[in-house]
Design brief:
Distance between the termini: 43 Å
Shape: globular
Radius of gyration: 29 Å
Number of helices: 30
Strand content: 15-25%
CATH architecture of the domain at 180-254 and 438-483 and 497-612: Alpha-Beta Complex
Number of strands: 40
Helix content: 25-40%
């Protein structure tokens, strides 16, 4: 028996108005006269008639809505109805919450085969043909996860509504374990490694991402065992050895670097920095403040005498290309679990984000499949879905999301980059034990908590190790459930952890149980798992699917047997499912059983360290780009307005304002600054309310510089991530970094040479600035292979991209400096030199799209380091009224942002601007590194100049209250005269309708 409960608004529905506006932006412009919505809950369970009225009251507000479970609701006039619901097995968060509401109200439980399913019907009043209504439906759903039903008014009335459909998962194949014969030709091994294990019908299960050498190594191992591997064993090795998990490109020897890029340049730099700092001891003045680096789910640094803060930034690129909302939600709640999985569990207290998109106005289609099949989502749809996904994941979890950025380049059309990060807070000690240390012990129960396992997320890890093409599996897409995660997150950090009820914890992320259990088993020395005990979303999963599924909202814990009852009772009281699925051992084996048979028996050493090394060679080739011709100009006002309207410069407050940054009440420096609400590159939060200490975070990336020189790109990102934080008052001696490499075609020797140069820059910059790397992540194959709108084969690779994130501790948040000009007559200074460095700049791209130039900004790290140290002294003396790091768009863009934020004018002369610049274009728009723009109270000017006397600084102007931005060049000629009001309009214009 199924009940269809429908709910309709009886007042104006803003959701419907928004949808109408969005639909009218399609090619079908102004044809849609009206839109209305009906929300639907289909309940597959026998419920007493007396309870139905009570039940319906749970779901609607009778003062603004009406509900019906006996007949369909619809507007009086409409032409078409489109219902969107989820495909079978796809996580339905709204329905999950609805089910819990019913269970709580009536004290009942839904059994296997029963459930709640949500959907929504969009009613349209519009005269449309079949192609137009299909185009509208296509804009409302994603066929990878949704189903759409379209009915005309006549059909709707004839059918008495949309009908009842239960999207249950039905798995017809018998759950069993298969042996895989590897005693086959090399060509056949290659096919299995690329396409996956073959089913009996000849279809492939999905990519293993194992190359020939890896497949041969596995074959030799099992020859010694005198047997073939089971499908469970082969799938488990593929997950554990995947690029996503093992980071093989960073780990393997490359050219003369025998220990690989990671150990040599990233981990190596951190060791050098920590050794230097260790000589100073642990102190806020610059000693070694690192606690845990590269060994846990996140990196950890000292916050104060009682607490540690953690940080981790992940990418979720490929899933977000297929299902932007689900991919982004999964990304943000997944990295939240990285905080929970640090030590014995850190409380997630801050989220950070970053998005690299293609131009949202580009609506030319691309396809994964031949003959115009498997159409990819448009850039605008991807952008909107990703932004909404991170919104949902963060806001529903009660974690502030103050810091982030958005960057556009047409090459992100094949794959967007979705960076998501979480900062956690954990005590140094809990009941006398180090809270940042964890270790599963032999005899501990293996316990899975949170969500159940389904076929969503199959091959997620191996999928992310491949280019996006026609073989990319839909099952790799997952949808996160932040409400479920919020419940167990609070239970862990507020109760279970502090009662010392477990010995270790980690996230069920890439590779699912196959990776989380096997990783924790390294701590104890082995494991024994019984797959029959793993709770499933629906029956019929094959053992290999259960073992590697990445279904979301799950953690794995090591719980001592004598604490199990207390642990499970607490979880049950909080509505969290907790299940024993095995035992940690010291057998040196990873053993998995199913129906009393051993289906996996691998040596821990082979599982984790058996991956064969694959030496790599690079092939360097210099890049020579076209140089745009600069036209002589005596007036740059139009150029400035045009610059402010560029997607990489314009306000993205449409993102910042929808992400809750005030929840938890710890925000100090906000994401939008001043009366003009300008996006800040840096934010500050105070996590302990009775302490003045704060956490300062920022980030930087410069993909366009990589088109010239990836060493310069990486150096600029590090310098800027540090400088952004320093400009807001951070101590440069107490900053740590995180690296996220997103590369393309990473088996190409030329791309590897670019990667090598970028990694070397990381080493050079980090060791000079003395900023340790504490965590990182790489994503190596961000390529798309498919077909364009004419059916021609195309390949789209992202530009090599390196995101550097910075995190530090401020001793006194009251000394935070914001970017907005605050007082007329304040003196304006530029710190650092401006040079003819327009290569890869926004200005070059603006005046001649496609022209890059050849002079990317260089970083003088030693000089900049001294400048930042002295500037920090000035902020501690409270001499600085405002400060902004000069970055993308150059000096004029930084000045404009400070003016617009404060709604104050400026009077500027370039006469004394330091540096080797040769023309006004460079003075205004060069993106030279190491520069900070500040304003100072005139009475503090002398003290400030004395503080900075060994650095290159110059007084260039004054803050004015006349509301105009005026610029004179070196010869005293006015080259810009424009009102702040016009600047503000241009700054907000680009995304004002989003």
């Amino acid at each position: 028996m199924a009940i269809r409960l429908e709910i309709q608004s009886i007042v104006s529905d803003t959701r419907a108005s928004t949808r109408k506006n969005n639909l009218n932006t399609l090619e079908i412009k102004n044809k849609i006269q009206d839109v209305s919505l009906v929300d639907v809950y289909t309940i597959s369970k026998k419920i007493d008639k007396k309870k139905l009225e009570i039940l319906s009251n749970l779901f609607y507000n009778r003062s603004v809505q009406k509900a019906s479970y006996t007949s369909p609701l619809h507007p009086e006039k409409f032409d078409f109805a489109i219902e969107i619901d989820f495909l079978p097995g796809v996580t339905d968060n709204v329905a999950n919450t609805a089910r819990e509401m019913i269970e709580d109200k009536f004290k009942i439980k839904f059994k296997n085969g029963e459930g709640v399913y949500s959907s929504q019907v969009t009613f349209l009043r519009a005269k449309l043909n079949s192609d137009e209504i299909k185009k509208i439906a296509d804009s409302l759903y994603n066929p990878l996860i949704h189903r759409a039903i379209i009915k005309s008014f006549k059909d709707f009335i004839c059918d008495k509504g949309m009908g009842i459909t239960i999207p249950k998962v039905t798995i017809s194949t018998k759950a069993k374990v298969d042996d895989v014969n590897l005693n086959i030709s090399d060509d056949e091994l290659i096919v299995i490694g690329k396409q996956g294990i073959k089913n009996k019908d000849g279809s492939a299960r999905g990519p293993l991402a194992l190359d020939l050498d890896q497949m041969k190594t596995i074959r030799e191992y099992f020859k010694l065992q005198m047997r073939n591997p089971t499908d469970v064993e082969l799938e488990s090795l593929a997950q554990t050895w995947s690029e996503h998990c093992k980071h093989t490109i960073f780990a393997n020897p490359i050219d003369e670097i025998k220990d690989g890029l990671y150990k040599t340049y990233i981990k190596g730099a951190t060791k050098i920095v920590r050794d230097k700092k260790s000589a100073k001891g642990r102190s806020a003045s610059g000693g070694d403040f690192c606690v845990s680096v590269f060994t846990d789910n996140a990196g950890g640094i000292i916050f104060d005498e009682n607490y540690i803060i953690t940080d981790k930034v992940e990418t979720h690129n490929t899933p977000s290309a297929l299902d932007p909302f689900g991919g982004a939600v999964t990304g943000i709640v997944g990295v939240n679990r990285d905080a929970l999985g640090f030590g014995l569990g850190a409380k997630p207290i801050i989220n950070r984000y970053g998005f690299c998109f293609a131009n949202p106005d580009d609506d030319s289609p691309i396809y994964k499949g031949k003959n115009f099949t498997q159409k990819m989502l448009a850039p605008k749809r991807i952008m909107q879905g990703v932004i909404a996904g991170v919104n949902s994941g963060g806001n529903c979890s009660g974690i502030p999301s103050p810091q982030g950025f958005v960057y556009f380049d047409k090459r992100y059309k094949g794959k967007p980059l979705v960076f998501v990060g979480t900062i956690g807070l954990i005590p140094k000690k809990i009941k006398g034990k180090k809270a940042y240390a964890k270790k599963a012990k032999p005899g501990d129960y293996i316990v899975m908590i949170g969500g159940r396992v389904g076929i969503d997320g199959i091959h997620g890890a191996t999928f992310s190790s491949e280019a996006l093409d026609t073989g990319s599996p839909a099952t790799a897409v997952q949808i996160g459930d932040p409400i479920t995660q919020k419940k167990f997150s609070d239970a862990i950090v507020k109760e279970v952890r502090d009662q010392d009820l477990f010995n270790s914890i980690t996230d069920n992320g890439a590779g699912g149980l196959s990776c989380s259990v096997a990783e924790m088993a390294k701590e104890s020395g082995g494991c024994l798992v019984n797959l029959d005990d793993v709770p499933l979303k629906y029956p019929g999963l094959a053992p290999w699917q259960t073992w590697i599924s990445e279904s979301q909202e799950r953690m794995t814990l090591a719980v001592p047997k004598n604490k199990w009852k207390q642990f499970v009772n607490l979880m049950n009281r909080r509505g969290i499912e907790a299940t024993i699925i095995g035992t940690f051992t010291n057998s040196k084996k990873c053993v998995v059983k199913y129906k009393n048979k051993t289906i996996m028996n691998l040596d821990m050493e082979f599982l984790h360290n058996g991956l064969p090394a694959k030496p790599m060679q690079t092939s360097y080739k210099p890049i020579i780009n076209a140089e745009p011709k600069l036209k002589k100009s005596s007036n740059f006002s139009k150029d400035l307005l045009k610059m402010l309207e560029r997607q990489n410069i314009a306000s993205y407050d449409f993102i910042s304002s929808q992400y809750d940054h005030e929840v938890q009440g710890n925000s100090v420096l906000k994401p939008l600054i001043g009366r003009g609400r300008v996006n800040s590159e840096t934010t500050v939060n105070r996590p302990i309310f009775n302490s003045k200490k704060g956490i300062i975070i920022s980030q930087a990336l410069y993909p366009a510089y990589g088109d010239i020189d990836t060493y310069a790109m990486a150096a600029a990102a590090i310098d800027t991530a540090i400088r952004n934080a320093v400009a807001a008052g951070a101590n440069p001696n107490y900053l740590a970094l995180l690296d996220n490499f997103c590369w393309c075609s990473s088996n190409d020797p030329w791309r590897l040479s670019q990667l090598k140069q970028a990694a070397k820059a990381c080493f050079d910059m980090a060791t000079i600035f003395e900023t340790p790397f504490i965590s990182g992540k790489d994503s190596m194959f961000n390529d798309f292979k498919g077909y364009d709108e004419k059916g021609n084969p195309i390949s789209i690779s992202i530009p090599p991209t390196l995101l550097i994130s910075s995190i530090g501790v401020m001793n006194d948040v009251s000394k935070t400096v914001s970017l907005d000009f605050k007082f007329p007559n304040d003196v304006i200074y530029v710190l650092g030199e401006t040079n003819d460095e327009l290569g890869g700049s926004e200005y070059f791209s603006m005046i001649d799209e496609g022209c890059i130039g050849n002079t990317a900004p260089k970083v003088d790290a030693k000089k900049n380091k001294q400048l930042y140290k002295n500037f920090y002294k000035a902020t501690q003396k409270e001499l600085v009224t405002s400060a902004i790091s000069i970055g993308r768009g150059g000096l004029i863009t930084a000045l404009t942002k400070s003016s617009v934020a404060g709604l104050l004018g400026v009077d500027i002369s370039l006469k004394n601007l330091p540096g080797n610049w040769s023309h006004d274009h460079a003075a205004l728009f060069s993106e030279s590194m190491g520069r900070i723009l500040i304003s100072i109270d005139p009475k503090n000017a002398s003290t400030f100049e004395n503080t900075m006397k060994k650095n290159i600084i110059a007084k260039i102007g004054t803050v004015k209250k006349d509301g105009k931005l005026k610029f004179k060049n070196k010869k005293g000629k006015e080259i810009i005269n424009i009102t702040v009001k016009k600047l503000l309009y241009s700054y907000r214009k680009t995304f004002k309708d989003y």
